[in-house]
Amino acid sequence: MSLRHRVPVSTIMTKKIITLNSNDQLETAERLFKEHHIRHIPVVEGDAIIGMLSLTDLLRISFADGAYEEDSDVETIVYNMFTISQVMAKNLKSISSNTTIKEVAEILANKEFHALPVVDDEKLVGIVTTTDLIKYLLEQY
């Protein structure tokens, strides 16, 4: 298998990004996760990324309260107790669109997160996930 070493992440990243603002409700986030079948949503202020919300983070707070009965009212109450700013990951590592796929693979393999924001000139231009990476690697076989 010969991987083309200099292929930039821009060739595999998602460019149509679903985003949230820090003043959105967690219920909105949950709806977006379900509607778009995604697991990570960047939280932005204008064009700049300020955090990343993952589906895991959301599940963690709803489980923490034993709120996964069939009763979605309980869930709503739990979601209203938290803000997106409180739940999102803030110490993000971002990459630029010309970072190589190989570098992205190394970062994702060594870190505990599964998605990286792609930022050029302080503007969020894409998001790349472990799933994008795996799909790319499979295409190489």
Automatic annotation (TrEMBL):
Keywords: CBS domain
Organism: Maribacter aurantiacus
Superkingdom of this protein's organism: Bacteria
Region forming the signal peptide: none
Protein name, UniProt field: CBS domain-containing protein
InterPro entries in UniProt: CBS_dom, CBS_dom_sf, Diverse_CBS-Domain
SMART domains: CBS
Domain CBS residue range list: 13-70, 88-141
One Pfam assignment: CBS
